[in-house]
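User: What would this chain look like folded?
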Amino acid sequence: QKILEKYHDLFTLQWEGVIGSMGAPSQAEWEQLLTNCSAFLFYGMERFMSHVLPNWLVAMNIPKCRLVILLDLVRSQQSYQRIKNSDIHKSCLRIALERPTETAMLLSLTGVGCVIATQWYTSLEENAERLESLFENLLSFGKTTGQTVYVLQK
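Assistant: Here's the prediction, encoded as structure tokens.
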């Protein structure tokens, strides 16, 4: 919340989304958010694709979305239990589609111009640091996504 408030003035006038206790978005809400944005940020627990249906995502056409930032792969006891219970009902192929590389490929196939994503499990604190660095470099300094990712790799 602090990071969003800090960079609020640098965002475009049309900033919308779902935060924290507002509840989990439905598939229709995910679709609306992705199709009506030029940039999309997911900052959450477990795998982004565990929240959306792959067959729904691949049917989408979202070329207006130029950038997707996925700060996911955070695990807590509760999120691990939820994902474990959910994965029991999924095929191995479906679970494989939820991995970072496969998620980036699916998003690219829908028309997304650039995907920045975590590749391994991390903590909320580490993702907060990544978000701060992303916003600082993209919004304050006006760096390109490539330059920003390079900064994150250091």
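The beta strands are 39-45, 67-74, 114-117. If you want, I can go into more detail on any region.
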